[in-house]
Amino acid sequence: MEYRLLGRSGLKVSTITMGTMTIGGKGVFAKTGNVSMDDTRRYVDMCIDAGVNLIDTANIYSFGTSEEMIGDVLGGKRKNDVLIATKARFSMGDSPNQGGLSRKHLIAECEASLRRLKTDVIDLYQVHEWDGQTPLEETMAALDTLVNHGKVRYIGCSNYSGWHIMKAMGISAADHRHRFVSQQIHYTLEAREAEYELLPISIDQGLGVLVWSPLAGGLLSGKHRRDGNALEGTRQLAGWGEPPIRDEERLWRIVDVIVDIAQARGVSGAQVALSWLIGRKAVTSVIIGGRTEEQFRDNLAAADLKLTDEERSRLDEVSAPPILYPYWHQLQTASDRLSEADLSLLGPYLG
Description:
38% of the residues lie in helices and 14% in strands. By secondary structure, it is an alpha/beta fold.
């Protein structure tokens, strides 16, 4: 297992993170999985034995049950220096103040997460989604308070747009507050929109990148092909709408290349898709989840798979995103003055 610094911090995390959304199975989250306590213990041990040192959860996952089960498994102590990341933002009740990123909600939910996780401190506390109604100054001040009070060690964001992140970073700098060290994003071979703004921002601002649903809800595992049962066993068929698939034919073209490389290497398609992500510029760690021991074991093996330059080129080409404005204009007229962050998107298109 390789370990990488999480953004502009001294914290090292494994290139694979254990995800926990399938744990608990309450309410709508039953569509993603219903991993039992016994299985959770086995999967946590399996991941730790493989070198994983970060477990990612959220207060909203099965409405606190995921955090409770992880807290029970770790037994109130950190086993083998395991790091815990969790998140807050979504509504945890019917009260109008039980959601969002207000000072009241963030501090209350952090304290609730600490109780459920049976720990004194959360290693990485992430705002789970944008809140356009709470002043960002209030949100950043609340996060700063949590760090200064020793309840949180590092802070990050998730599902922010480029301008959201840059506004938050500007407020942190202007007010001399703790800054985000990472962002958690959706990024896969099928969905490469993050390359327009989010990855260049990570390179420019020194943010770590944690990738959620790196297999597009199982669609890039190589098990699903272009036939009548293409979605069988996926979250889409269960009614879970993430991620949206806007061009199904393009999806299957990507899967065809994944499967071809996987068969030639004697590995799974999931390992190929995960290895491609682990090798992408700015990516720190990919978050794997699953409902079975087989899925976890297979995904963990991706940490040791190194794709060749030719294999990467094939995957890059079949999944390449269109160059939107203003990037096509920059490509044509600004190629003599591009930064490292610019080149993360435009570099492959230069002669």
